[in-house]
Write a structure and sequence with these properties.
Elements lengths: L2 H7 L8 H4 L19 E11 L6 E12 L3 E7 L4 E9 L4 E2 L1 E7 L4 E10 L2 E12 L6 E7 L2 E7 L21 E8 L3 E4 L3 E7 L2 E6 L12 E4 L2 E4 L7 E5 L8 H18 L8 E6 L6 E2 L4 E5 H4 L8 H16 L8 E2 L5 H19 L5 H4 L1 H10 L24 H18 L1 H15 L3 E2 L1 H12 L3 H10 L4 E7 L5 E7 L14 E9 L2 E9 L3 E4 L9 E3 L9 E3 L2 H9 L6 H16 L5 H9 L7 H17 L6 H19 L12 H14 L3 H16 L6 H13 L3 H13 L3 H11 L5 H13 L9 H6 L6 H10 L1 H7 L2 H5 L10 H11 L7 H34 L9
Helix pairs in contact: 3-5, 3-6, 5-6, 6-9, 8-9, 9-10, 10-11, 14-15, 14-16, 15-29, 16-18, 17-18, 18-19, 18-20, 19-20, 20-22, 21-22, 28-29
């Protein structure tokens, strides 16, 4: 081992002693939350031995946990939810046994209390437990799945599912070394966080012993077992492989190609080598999430990591690169340095999302992530406008499900805040803060305040005071720009609210970067809006040609200009960057939702952007037209709205062409797909529908013969206008598909039908067909997307609720309320009451239902207010009217 490699893997022995590095926390976590584990007895290291066979449903295991007793005690607790403990012994350093009894004290949390017959004095001990368990089938914990006839075992332990596999201290603050060994049928493959140390074989079985890991929390422990295939990844700083299910190794080439590039960029940015001894990435055929940052063994949904060589679409390549970069960034932010408690889960995910966009922007500028990432940020802004939205950072108790905090705010609001801070203090100071943070806290646990202090030290500014309102308060600020009589600008802040919500006060420290043009010269000014209102005395502003209140779309706030300035900014939008124009359109949509922009004015506004030279801007227009159609267009005007939409979008598609041409920029592909989808599904464009049907017929014969960028949209358009025979063809192709990407597209097609009789068959197939726990619910969710069949799907869900709940993940069931979001409050209320029954609901479901209820109320008010104005706009619209800004 070279000196470089030795330095890479060593960590200070003092970090094994958690009390020393976690002195900021009380020995008794129960002082504030009685269900949190205390540090009276704490783990120092854990070894887990499992005997498994994926062909069976049960397993057995044992674990040795080295613990330290910090204060004399007669009892202590740990977690085991599912595994049945059959034996327990506590041995001191001299080998003497301390007799223990144990019992479950909080069944729903898996809290097990161990009690000694006599007080146990401080010192080092070994806790040895034997247990048995049953493999789960819902994609959580240690679970079993069958794919293409082969049985596999995988793990998903975040947030509190390690306790469902083996007894442990299942909280993120307990970071300890782990050592796993697995006994399994000799013909199978097992991979874990660490490399194999040695193995032995006997009687058709083998026992694989893995090396000892650096300190990590239980939620990062991981295993994958089955007839796996291993694809080496050359060029990494450590050994690495892409791990696939049987027969899919040939689909790993793109992931193997991009991984060394992305990892190298991350190492360079952090200034710290990749901190683990290997880097395996596993494609999992049944996976609840997109990816999971298990240290040294990242897991992904198969469709996210695998792709047909040379046949991966632009969008799929961009998603793969972004997800790989996100999960690899977690190796530092989350794994090397870990949150102390789930309160800061948002920071883990926000930082990894921010880092992924930055890294992929460097490795693949053609992906234009600076534009595509705004979709997530704008979605977070819309959620942050809801009245009941909580702060992104909030206290969680042990009884709370950490999944309840995982939403678009978790990933994208925090990412937007980080972008704002980097823009304010500068990239170099931001990077210096990150490097100092990791150097100071490596292998430890932190809170958000540790990172804010690092930003403050690196920048010399009071960043903690700036960040605190954005993190600790709910909502998003609205910055209103007004021109005073003396020509000065007045900036005013309050909380942004949607139509119908009570005006809400709010005070943030908002970093604002104004950009404006005067006398043909573009200027920029940085302003920190601390108070409710401030005057800005800047030469040239009074007579500016235009003013943009959020330069670079770097700020996390909404903004409002006087009508005259707003109109001038729209007319001069070509002077803005594509990112700023996307922000302009999103801000107009927000003002519509707030009742500050009328529906007819909004349509006139976005119409002017339909021919924008940047495809992402036109895609935004397509999405906003779809929003208007679904919300504000009266039934009697739907045909006319389709004609209006067709007149705007068909010329764009004709210029672009329905098929790509040689040497065209690859980033045009998503716009082409969006146009074909909109014109084929809603515009009923005969030429587009015929083109989609032609591609679909070819795809069903040979998927490789169809451009992957067009395959999905072609199948969707064809399914929308298809019959039972086409649905049968989709089903047959799905059941024969081996390629996960092909299988994925065909599931979407099975749920895109509209004929009532075929809808019934699709619903039946969701439960009876060969779909796993993460696939089958996609069909009813897709079917519910069409207003005409929403009621039928909801009735079906009510009828089969218990079966759905037993098969799908809790996260999927908690999102059922979204099926009822539309323009029918009565149907929505009926479904909401059903889902809120105490026997059915969960914390996450209640959170989702509350957000959906507020969106429905806002939709209803907006529809009542703006429908007539939209109808008037459409009545006065002429296809020959100019659309130039």
């Amino acid at each position: 081992m070279s000196e470089y490699r030795k330095a890479r893997f060593e960590f200070p022995l003092r970090l094994l002693f958690a009390a020393a590095i976690l002195a900021r926390w009380s020995l008794h976590a129960a002082d504030t939350d009685p269900l949190r584990l205390t540090r009276v007895v704490e783990p120092l290291a854990q070894a887990v031995a499992l005997t498994v066979d994926p062909a069976k449903d049960d397993y057995s295991g044992s674990t040795r946990i080295d613990v330290r007793v910090n204060a004399t005690t007669s009892s202590f607790r740990l977690h085991a939810y599912g595994p049945v403990i059959s034996a327990a012994e506590l041995r001191d350093a001299a080998g003497r046994t301390v007799r223990l009894s144990f019992a479950t004290t909080e069944k729903d949390l898996g809290l097990i209390t161990f009690t000694a017959l006599a007080p146990v004095p401080p010192g080092g001990y070994a806790l040895e437990l034997a247990f048995t368990g049953t493999f789960r089938r819902d994609g959580l914990g240690l679970y079993k799945t069958v794919s293409q006839g082969d049985a596999y075992l995988f793990t998903q332990f975040e947030s509190h599912y390690a306790r469902r596999a083996f007894p442990c201290w299942d909280e993120p603050g307990f970071k300890i070394p782990w050592q796993l060994s697995v006994t399994l049928p000799a013909g199978l493959v097992v991979v874990a966080n660490a490399a194999v140390a040695h193995e032995s074989r006997a009687d058709g079985m083998k026992t694989v012993h893995f090396g000892r890991t650096p300190p990590m929390p239980s939620y990062l422990v991981a295993l994958a077992i089955g007839p796996l295939e291993l694809v080496p990844v050359p060029g990494l700083a450590v050994p690495g492989r892409i791990v696939t299910p049987r027969g899919q190794a040939e689909l790993a080439a793109e992931a193997a190609r991009i991984s060394p590039i992305i990892l190298g960029r991350l190492e360079h940015y952090f200034g710290i080598p990749y901190p683990f001894s290997k880097l395996d990435q596993v494609a999992v055929p049944e996976f609840v999430f997109g990816g999971m940052e298990n240290a040294g063994l990242i897991t992904y949904r198969t469709t996210a990591l695998l792709g047909d060589p040379g046949r991966i679409s632009f969008s799929a390549r961009r998603r793969m690169a972004g997800l790989v970069a996100h999960e690899m960034a977690h190796m530092w932010f989350g794994d090397l340095v870990t949150m102390a408690w789930w309160d800061d889960l948002w920071l883990n995910e926000s930082f990894a999302s921010w880092m992924a966009a930055k890294i992929v922007g460097q490795t693949n500028p053609e992906f234009r992530t600076e534009l595509s990432e705004l979709n997530g940020v704008h979605g977070a802004m819309r959620t942050d406008a809801l009245p009941s939205v909580p702060p992104i950072r909030r206290r969680l108790l042990a009884r709370d499900d950490p999944v309840q905090v995982v939403d678009e705010l978790t990933y994208s609001k925090g990412k937007a805040i980080l972008t704002m801070i980097e823009s304010w203090i500068g990239p170099e100071k931001f990077r210096a803060a990150m490097r100092g943070y990791f150097e100071q806290h490596r292998w430890g646990n932190t809170t958000a305040e540790d990172l804010w202090r690092a930003f403050g030290l690196a920048s010399g500014e009071d960043i903690p005071a700036l960040l605190s309102p954005f993190m600790e308060k709910p909502g998003i600020p609205l910055v209103t720009v007004a021109v005073e009589s003396d020509g000065r600008l007045r900036l005013t802040q309050r909380r942004f609210t949607n139509l119908g919500a009570e005006p809400a006060p709010g005070r943030w420290q908002i970093p604002i970067i104004l950009r404006w043009s005067a006398a043909g010269r573009i200027r920029q000014e940085r302003v920190l809006l601390r108070d409710e209102s401030m005057l800005l005395d800047q030469p040239g502003l009074a007579n500016a040609d235009w003013i943009h209140p959020n330069a670079g779309e770097a700020g996390y706030y909404r903004w409002s200009l006087p009508p005259g300035l707003n109109a001038r900014l729209a007319r001069q939008a070509s002077a803005l960057t594509a990112r700023e124009r996307l922000g302009l359109l999103e801000n107009a949509s927000a003002l519509l939702n707030a009742g500050q922009l009328a529906g007819d004015e909004f349509l006139a506004y976005i119409t002017a952007f339909a021919g924008d030279p940047e495809p992402e801007v036109t895609q935004k227009v397509v999405a906003q037209l779809a929003m208007v159609r679904g919300l504000l267009v009266p039934d009697g005007q739907r045909e006319r709205f389709s004609d209006f939409s067709l007149s705007l979008l068909r010329p764009v598609l004709m210029r672009l062409g329905m098929k790509p041409v040689a040497d065209e920029p690859i980033h045009l592909a998503p716009l082409r797909a969006a146009l074909i989808s909109e014109l084929g599904k809603e515009g009923r464009d005969a030429a587009v529908i015929a083109f989609a049907r032609e591609l679909t017929a070819r795809y069903l014969v040979s998927p490789r013969d169809v451009d992957p960028a067009l395959a999905s949209v072609a199948l969707g358009v064809s399914a929308r206008h298809g019959d039972a025979a086409l649905w049968d063809a989709f089903r047959a192709a799905f059941e024969q598909a081996k390629n996960p990407a092909v299988r994925d597209l065909l599931i979407d097609a099975l749920g895109a039908v509209r004929e009532p009789a075929v809808v019934e068959r699709a619903l039946d197939y969701a439960l009876s067909g060969p779909l796993n726990s993460t696939e089958f619910m996609r069909i009813p969710f897709a079917l519910a997307g069409h207003p005409g069949q929403r009621e039928r799907v909801i009735d079906w869900v009510i009828q089969h609720f218990d079966e759905l709940k037993n098969r799908a993940s809790p996260q999927r069931i908690a999102g059922l309320i979204s099926m009822a979001e539309g323009n029918d409050p009565v149907r929505f209320d009926k479904f909401r009451e059903f889902l809120l029954d105490p026997l059915r609901t969960t914390q996450l479901a209640e959170k989702n239902i509350l957000k959906a209820t507020e969106r429905m109320a806002q939709r209803t008010l907006l529809r009542e207010r703006e429908t007539e104005k939209v109808a008037a706009f459409l009545s006065g619209w002429s296809a020959d009217a100019p659309t130039d800004r």
